[in-house]
Amino acid sequence: MHDSPPRAWAEIDLEALKHNYRFAQEQSGGAAVMAVVKANAYGHGYAKVVQALEEFSPAFYGVANVREAREVRKVLPTARVYLLGIANPSEYEEIVHSDFTPCISCMEGFHAYATLAESQQRVLKVHLALDTGMGRGGFLPDTPEFSEALAFTHPWVEVEGIGSHLPVADEDEEFTRQQITSFVKAIPPDMSFRHIANSAGLMKFQTQALNLVRPGLMLYGVSPLPEYQAALKPVMRLCSRVSIIRDIPKGQGVSYGRTFVTKRDSKIATVGIGYADGLPRAISGKGVEVWLNGTRAPIVGRVTMDQIMVDVTDLPQVHAGDVVEIFGPNVSVIQIADAAGTIPWEIFTGIAPRVVRNAEVRPFVS
Predict the structure, then answer these.
(1) Which tens digits make up the pLDDT trace of 40-56?
(2) Which of 159, 178, 207, 244 has its CA 20 to 30 A from that of 282?
(3) Is 256 known to be catalytic?
(4) Domain 236-358 falls in which CATH fold?
(5) How confident is the model at residue 77 (pLDDT cuts 50, 70, 90)?
(6) Catalytic residue among 74, 185, 250, 256, which?
(7) 271 and 310 in contact (C-beta within 8 Å)?
(8) What are the residue boundaries of the structural domains of the chain, listed by start?
């Protein structure tokens, strides 16, 4: 018995990924790079992404938690993996044993890591998290606890870096500059790694006082700052195929709720992708278009769990089996996100596991 071909798939352009990484390097002002690959490399797939980026020897691979750190190490056993999220105390022992790099937000965690590192006779490198305005973790500047953390010494723990995060680098320039000033003022200038810049931060606010950057979204071809979008290349092309084309008379409802009713005799193509694949139902009725046979065609009616309907009345050469680009080089993922009232980060990470990631189908065909 043969495997069925995928109904929906994501083509991953690794050359575009490398292009975007090089752009991040150029924008960083010579800083080291932490490649952020959390959430299955923003839905693009850990294995292929990490393997492709290893060509550049990133200083770190940034992940959200220990489970993700394990996934990166499966691909690259010697990779330096940085835990961007606050670890659960039950994970501390594994973090020390596996030499993952945690960020520390409180002295209790600091002491616990020190005890475990000493018991395992392993020197653990850690970073301090400094809260300059994000509000979800980290030491506060100008507090006794932060001063205690800076002064803490232990033979089995090395504080090699301090990091913070920018919550509005793509929205509020004044606040972001205040954050960076506060961060630079608070950290020792001889700290090995000093980092605060996400994608928007490194493109617009990088300074020589900071020597590590953390590009995430921009690696995958989307800029949080519109003025930089043209410099990036989309990495994911989300596709499906036309399942059937039907002649629908004027006045016929299409999909659940009859929110779309044909105003003319129409040809409607059913396409094998839906909200169970990660295409948000919220885009229904918002004028979203797909790319089909070299032109755009509108999605009509509500997005269903497994299928969408596309009006191809004005596309006479459409046939069952034709490839449909949902987003990619011809239709921006930003279009999908805007129509759904969300952000590209959520669209990428919401692409379901049943959508096959295929890095071998190259190059894109427009």
Answers:
(1) 999 999 999 999 999 99
(2) 244
(3) yes
(4) Lyase, Ornithine Decarboxylase; Chain A, domain 1 (2.40.37)
(5) very high
(6) 256
(7) yes
(8) 29-214, 236-358
